[in-house]
Amino acid sequence: MSPRVSDRSPVPTSLPLQPLSPLDGRYRAVVAGLADYLSEAGLNRARVEVEVEWILALTDRSLFGTAALSEADKAALRALYLDFGQAEIDWLAEKEAVTRHDVKAVEYLVRDRLSTLGLDDIAELAHFACTSEDINSASYALTVRRAVERVWLPKLHSVIAKLRALAVEHKDAAMLSRTHGQPATPSTMGKELAVFAWRLERVAAQIAGGDYLAKFSGATGTWSAHVVAEPDVDWPDLSRTFIEGLGIGFNPLTTQIESHDWQVELYDRARHAGGILHNLATDIWTYISMGFFAQIPVAGATGSSTMPHKINPIRFENAEANLEIAGGLFQTLAQTLVTSRQQRDLTDSTTQRNIGVAFGHSLLALDNLERGLGEISLSRDVLLADLDANWEVLAEAIQTVVRAEIAAGRSQITDPYALLKDFTRGRRVGAAQLAEFVDGLDIGDAAKQRLLALTPAGYTGLAASLVDPLP
Predict the structure, then answer these.
(1) Architecture of the domain whose range is 27-130
(2) Is 309 annotated in the active site?
(3) What EC number(s) does its UniProt record assign (predicted)?
(4) Per residue in 116-139, pLDDT tens?
(5) Is the CATH number 1.10.3720.10 carried by domain 390-467?
């Protein structure tokens, strides 16, 4: 059997170390803000924060013969996470290579720094009575909340603001609607964009009002070790106070792990927002292809490698693709994290390491949408020409007015819908034909004059007033 051609190809030399994900490569600048929270280093910094604050919570209560630390010692301890940097990242990587346990490595880091600070006498309070998930659940709640509230939601709100501005600017720009891809009752471009702004605002509010929960109740959620060590402490109350003091919510009833239901809710809502944004991207793409929007040329940019005239709608195509990737990841996160076998399995551990990837692709899409919406210009002349070529869409208005005239006793027409259907269905009807048809209708003069004055561009109902102010 002869070898394949590829088998005879020379093997290229290995490349210098490269990022495997485009989020850490070509798109790094766009998503860098998320890395402060949702990277491995961001998670470890939060873990150090939780470990340190737990030590301070125990010493503030003078448990086990300790005394509250001085403000200087507290500040020095908090500097372990406030000044967390490359030295700590490297230290943890080296230690984890030995421990094969990321949270244990963090505990050892805290113990090491306690010794450096001359606080060896409270070293045994590091990770006291904790299971890894106590630290992890609090750390994920902290990092995800900060990433969402400080990076992802602001970008979503920027897209909404851009949509709102465009909606107000184009609130009176009449356009032919298309339902099922066919000419339909006109609207305005502003009103159509306002629909997306309103939908996104609603989901954004749900996300902003969501929970971020942690547990802090030991190996199987029973505070067993805590009670044995000190029976007289109200450990559930202390744990709640501690967790809420970190700025997150407390889950009092769990197995070894926090149940992740808040994460499922968040990722489902983020996926929902992504679905709306995907709809926006494909609609704007379609409007561009129809000539409703013209794309503003960017100096030096190339649209096609062979067709110089082209300006491709790459912002919306990029957003569309990244929203699909993000949506798939959010769905997987929500589906996987809702289940844990009996009191604990580790499926969630590796899954949660991809939270940043999901939000990264979503953030990249938001960035492209924000830019894309700033690089389009409405072609009102194209909208008006499209309207003028479809006078038959006024059939709805005519048959509705005729019905009203029949109800008022000013017309003897029977089945006005069928009358208009025979006149307009499947054919183009011009202004003159429609005027002649209306002039011959058996309806009151006032109604007839209203219909004769009507044009497709004027048949937009309350569309403009629905935009300003937006609901």
Answers:
(1) Orthogonal Bundle (1.10)
(2) no
(3) 4.3.2.2
(4) 999 999 999 999 999 999 999 999
(5) no
